[in-house]
């Protein structure tokens, strides 16, 4: 900086010297041609006549005034070196101000990072304290003294109810999400809000237009960064039907990550570890391969949570698949009767023949002359799907081509105990929920003995399973706007847990 200032001062000095020399020459030139009219000394002006004909007084005054201005210009120029120094000082002060502002910005960013790290550390400590309480009476006291009308504690459905509640409160208190603004509709900032991929569009919509508690406009204060593209709309607008060429999807994801990683510093400072995408389409995992770091490092929130295809429950989040035909829960499932009407059927399933598991189910149970287990490939038009669910004790939920099934959430709504028939499937919210408390998992090899397996469930155990379904239902309901502890907040909580478990980097 001193070298720059020295060069600046030298430049201004050279400029002033040249300018003064030019002005002096001009004045001498003017003086040579006007010497007959004007002569000046250091003390006064003297007007001398050089021609026999008189010169008009007005002309003399005009000439003298011009020369006077020229002389003043010389004096001003001669003193302009002080102005040059003043200019240099002004530049120096401006540079200092810019440096101070930049330093302030850098310090503020550093301060924000420190505050984020300290906040996460405090959250971990409080959750760990709640989770490490082993005294049953203390745990019961904590749960029973919770003054929160929105929270219904049930030790059976949670792995650790005290720890979950404390973690949820810490999320509400601290968690901030930055949503990238890049991209245009419809592929970004929008998604389907009904039919089988409802959850994808509804989450994007809530994140974009609601969730004021969690969304931040200052990316430096964010814990995670949301890449708001919709894989469903990529398939609709970029995919060429029947080609099975997923290159356009991968290319879009690659381009999007390249844009945000070039424009912002946040992706590069953590290699994308604190960024997340969300997709319910079966091809969500394939689209994420557009960027290796997104696939291997970032948080991927996926309905297709298949560990045999790269889903990593340590960093990825299992997204419940929710099928809302018109965008809303069926009135038949919206409010169930408080009493316990009889359920004459032991188990029920209706769905298409696809994937490796359903053919086995159909082989052993389709069109069987059995009044207790009803398995249909296509439900007859005179029969109602939800009515069958409400009349069945167990609802069979086999995987199709991919592991997730919307029947799991539908069964929860109907308080029909889900029977999970799947391989390599990470169930949603299994970090905090005990799925064995409200569902049954049956190995695919046991499908031929399905009736015996379900009949072995005692009435007492079935009653407990059904009661727990009523408790857990709230965690799978899509509300608009979102409500505390509903599925939107449970998804956020799963992302929050991954962020808590992420190793802190020097960013």
TrEMBL record:
InterPro entries, A to Z: Exostosin, Exostosin_GT47
GO CC term (a single one): Golgi membrane
Domain of life according to the entry: Eukaryota
Coiled coil feature spans: none
Residue stretches making up the Exostosin GT47 domain: 172-456
Family that this chain belongs to: Belongs to the glycosyltransferase 47 family.
Protein name: Exostosin GT47 domain-containing protein
Lineage: Eukaryota, Viridiplantae, Streptophyta, Embryophyta, Tracheophyta
């Amino acid at each position: 900086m001193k070298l720059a200032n020295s060069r600046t001062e030298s430049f201004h000095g050279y400029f002033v010297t040249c300018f003064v020399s030019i002005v002096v020459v001009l004045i001498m030139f003017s003086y040579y041609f006007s010497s007959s009219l004007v002569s000046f000394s250091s003390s006064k002006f003297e007007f001398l006549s050089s021609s026999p004909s008189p010169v008009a007084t007005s002309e003399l005054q005009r000439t003298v005034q011009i020369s006077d201005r020229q002389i003043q210009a010389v004096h001003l120029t001669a003193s302009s070196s002080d102005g040059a120094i003043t200019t240099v000082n002004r530049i120096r002060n401006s540079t200092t101000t810019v440096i101070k502002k930049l330093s302030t910005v850098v310090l503020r960013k550093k301060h924000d990072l420190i505050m984020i790290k300290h906040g996460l550390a405090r959250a971990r400590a409080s959750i760990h304290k709640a989770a490490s309480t082993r005294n049953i009476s203390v745990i019961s006291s904590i749960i029973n003294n919770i003054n929160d009308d929105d929270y219904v504690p049930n030790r059976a459905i949670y792995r650790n109810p005290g720890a979950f509640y404390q973690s949820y409160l810490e999320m509400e208190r601290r968690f901030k999400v930055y949503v990238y603004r890049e991209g245009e509709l419809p592929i970004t900032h929008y998604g389907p809000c009904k039919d089988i991929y409802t959850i994808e569009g509804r989450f994007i919509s809530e994140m974009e237009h609601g969730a004021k508690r969690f969304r931040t406009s200052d990316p430096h204060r964010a814990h995670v960064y949301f890449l708001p593209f919709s894989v469903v709309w990529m398939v609709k607008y970029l995919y060429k039907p029947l080609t099975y060429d997923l290159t356009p999807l991968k290319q879009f994801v690659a381009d999007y990550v390249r844009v945000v990683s070039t424009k912002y510093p946040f992706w590069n400072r953590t290699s994308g570890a604190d960024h997340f995408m969300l997709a319910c389409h079966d091809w969500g995992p394939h689209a994420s391969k557009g960027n290796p770091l997104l696939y291997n490092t970032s948080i991927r929130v996926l309905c297709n949570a298949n560990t045999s295809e790269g889903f990593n429950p340590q960093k990825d989040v299992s997204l419940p698949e929710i099928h809302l035909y018109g965008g809303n829960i069926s009135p038949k499932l919206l409010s169930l009767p408080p009493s316990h009407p009889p359920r004459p059927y032991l188990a029920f399933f209706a769905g298409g023949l696809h994937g490796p598991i359903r053919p086995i189910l159909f082989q052993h149970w389709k069109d069987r002359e059995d009044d207790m287990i009803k398995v249909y490939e296509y439900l007859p038009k005179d029969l109602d799907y939800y009515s069958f669910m409400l009349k069945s004790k167990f609802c069979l939920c086999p995987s199709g081509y991919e592991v997730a099934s919307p029947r799991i959430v539908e069964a929860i709504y109907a308080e029909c105990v889900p029977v999970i028939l799947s391989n390599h499937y990470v169930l949603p919210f299994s970090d905090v929920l005990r799925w064995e408390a409200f569902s049954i998992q049956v190995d695919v090899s046991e499908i031929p003995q399905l009736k015996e397996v379900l009949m072995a469930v005692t009435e007492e155990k079935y009653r407990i399973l059904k009661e727990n379904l009523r408790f857990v239902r709230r965690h799978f309901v899509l509300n608009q706007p979102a409500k505390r502890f509903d599925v939107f907040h449970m998804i956020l909580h799963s992302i929050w847990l991954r962020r808590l478990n992420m190793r802190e980097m020097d960013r």
